[in-house]
Write a structure and sequence with these properties.
Number of strands: 6
CATH architecture of the largest domain: 3-Layer(aba) Sandwich
Helix content: 25-40%
CATH superfamily of the largest domain: Type I PLP-dependent aspartate aminotransferase-like (Major domain)
Bound molecules: pyridoxal-5'-phosphate
Largest sheet: 4 strands, parallel
């Protein structure tokens, strides 16, 4: 195989493929309705779920063929409730986009709009949870790639548990999968 020169992508988000992955992509076409494709998918999903030790045996991983935006929208469309509300904590473009997706999918939501790059304001989260009693879910981007802000989920989830129990977190881990992150 002719060696292709590598472009290192420096913009946040898209990754540079390794030679091993590039090579795998040239190995031929597989029919997605055949058993070997199903086996491969099952194998990848079972290994993906083990990225977080705590998830194995309790959760399933689902592979989606699409962009990060597609994955986030699929997650929100699947998990944001229809009969209660989701609180979006937005401190960058991708958090704001989550709110827009909820709007398009007609899911009730509130947004805590923070200046881009700021840390999550836990006092505001507490006030919003007290004010809006129909909030059952909180949506947040773990790593706001647009600003480089890594949101402290550990502190946020502990804080919310001490404020209001039974809130479900919907987390976008695009660009940060496998960094230390609580999975409860
Ligand atoms: C946190 C986050 N969310 C969403 C996206 C959107 O991904 P895509 O450009 O593949 O749609 C990115 C892209 O880098 C991202 O970093």
């Amino acid at each position: 195989m002719k060696k292709v020169s590598r472009t290192v992508l420096l913009n946040p988000g898209p990754v540079t493929l390794s030679d091993r992955v590039r090579k795998a992509l040239t190995l031929g076409d597989w029919c997605h309705r055949e058993p070997e494709f199903a086996d491969l998918t099952r194998d990848i999903n079972s290994r993906l779920v083990r990225v977080y030790r705590e998830m194995a045996g309790k959760f399933d991983a689902v592979m989606l063929t699409g962009s990060g935006t597609c994955a986030v929208e699929a997650m929100l469309a699947s998990f944001a409730p229809h009969t209660s509300a989701t609180l979006v904590i937005a401190n960058g473009v991708y958090g704001e986009r989550m709110a827009r997706m909820l709007e398009v999918h007609e899911r009730k939501h509130y947004i805590i709009q923070l200046p881009w790059g700021d840390a999550i304001d836990l006092e505001r989260v507490r006030r919003e949870l007290q004010l809006q009693q129909d909030i059952t879910h909180i949506a947040v981007v773990h790593h706001e790639t647009t600003t480089g802000r890594l949101n402290d989920l550990s502190a946020s989830t502990s804080f919310v548990s001490s404020t209001k129990s039974a809130c479900c977190w919907i987390v976008s881990a695009v660009s940060v999968l496998k960094r230390s992150m609580p999975t409860n």
